[in-house]
Design brief:
Elements: H1 2-9, H2 12-19, H3 23-37, E1 42-45, E2 48-51, H4 53-73, E3 83-89, H5 91-108, E4 112-118, E5 132-136, E6 144-158, H6 160-166, E7 180-181, H7 191-198, H8 212-220, E8 225-229, E9 240-242, E10 249-258, H9 259-262, H10 265-291
Parallel strand pairs: 3-4, 3-5, 7-8
Antiparallel strand pairs: 1-2, 5-10, 6-8, 6-9, 6-10
Helix pairs in contact: 1-2, 2-3, 5-10
Length: 292
C-alpha cells in the first residue's frame, strides 16, 4: 500500500499524509520492498517519484493485491466496486456534470468515494495526485488517455438593468466603455480562456475572479458585462446576449487519465460515467440553445 501511494501521488510526503504515517516510515518500507525485489521500483525526477520498468510490473501486482483486499473487506458484497477516486475539474463542469455522474456511480456502487478538487488549469505532464483531470482545451500529455467530453461557448451577457443604465454596445470596440467580468488575468493558466479575452478591450475597472460562479453572480448583480459559458446562463433567461453576431468563443472540455489510474475499476467506471453524462449534458445544452 505504501508503494502504491507513492507511485500514485509521486511524493513521499503526500503518501505519508494519505497513509497516516511519517516520511521516514514511507522511506523505510520502500527500501525494504526494493531490497526484497533486488532493484529499484521508483526513481526520483524533478516532478516527483516515477516508476522504473520493475516498478511498472510491481504496480500491476500491487493493484491486484489491493483489489483482492478490497474484495475481502466487502465480503458481504463481493461483486461491488470500491475505492477512492480523485478528480480535478473546473468548478462549472464539476457542479453541472461531474457531481451528477458521481452520484449515479455511488447509487450503483456505494463503496466508491470521491474527492473533487476545483481547478481550472492546464493538464499536468507528470503525476498530479488525482486520478482524472478535467481540463479546458485539447491537452498535450504523454502516457495518458485524453478524451473529449463536450463543448460550450463563451459569450457576452448582461442584465437588462445594466444595459438600460450604461447602454448596449454596438461593436467590440465599444466594450472599452464597459466593465468586463472574467477571470483574474494573472491567475489565468488556460490558453483557450486567455484567447477568449485577448481580443477584447481592457474596459473599465471591473470584478474579476478565479471562480466562474463569481462571474455569473457579478453579472446578475449588474456589475458589468460577463464573459460567461452559455450553458450557465440557461438558469437565468432574463440575461441578455450582447454582440451575438460579433463575439463567441467555442471551448472543449477534455478528460485526462493516466494508465496506472485506469487500471483501477473505480476510476475506469467513473471516467465512463463522466463521458455518458457529458454527452447527455452537451445535448441538453444544444437543445436549450436551439429553443432559446
Amino acid at each position: 500500500m505504501t508503494f502504491l501511494a507513492v507511485a500514485r501521488l509521486g511524493r513521499y510526503t503526500a503518501a505519508a499524509d494519505a497513509l497516516g504515517v511519517n516520511h521516514s516510515t514511507v522511506s523505510r518500507r520502500l527500501a525494504s520492498l526494493e531490497a526484497s525485489l533486488g532493484d529499484r521500483v521508483l526513481v526520483r525526477t524533478p516532478s516527483g517519484w516515477e516508476l522504473t520498468e520493475l516498478g511498472q510490473r510491481a504496480m500491476i501486482a500491487a493493484e491486484e493485491m489491493e483489489a483482492a483486499i478490497g474484495r475481502l473487506a466487502a465480503h458481504d458484497r463481493p461483486s461491488t466496486i470500491s475505492g477512492l477516486v480523485r478528480v480535478a475539474t473546473p468548478d462549472a463542469f464539476g457542479s453541472t456534470c461531474a457531481i451528477p455522474a458521481f452520484v449515479e456511480v455511488q447509487r450503483r456502487h456505494p463503496d466508491v468515494a470521491f474527492e473533487v478538487i476545483a481547478a481550472t488549469q492546464r493538464v499536468r505532464q507528470h503525476r498530479s495526485g488525482v486520478d482524472i483531470e478535467i481540463v479546458v482545451g485539447k491537452p498535450s500529455v504523454n502516457n495518458a488517455s485524453a478524451l473529449r467530453l463536450s463543448s460550450y461557448r463563451l459569450a457576452l451577457f448582461a442584465t437588462p438593468e445594466y444595459l438600460a443604465e450604461h447602454g448596449t454596445p454596438r461593436s467590440v470596440a465599444e466594450l472599452e466603455e464597459h466593465r468586463l467580468i472574467f477571470y483574474v488575468e494573472s491567475a489565468l493558466q488556460v490558453d483557450d480562456l486567455d484567447a477568449a479575452h485577448r481580443g477584447l478591450p481592457i474596459g473599465k475597472p471591473s470584478i474579476s475572479s478565479t471562480s466562474v460562479f463569481a462571474h455569473v453572480s457579478a453579472t446578475l448583480e449588474s456589475a458589468g458585462i460577463g464573459i460567461l459559458p452559455d450553458y450557465l446562463t440557461h438558469a437565468h433567461p432574463h440575461l441578455v446576449r450582447v454582440l451575438a453576431d460579433e463575439y463567441g468563443h467555442d471551448i472543449d472540455y477534455w478528460a485526462v487519465a493516466r494508465e496506472e489510474a485506469l487500471r483501477k475499476p473505480a476510476v475506469a467506471l467513473t471516467l465512463q460515467a463522466l463521458i455518458d453524462h457529458a454527452q447527455q449534458h452537451h445535448l441538453d445544452i444544444r437543445a436549450a440553445a436551439n429553443s432559446a
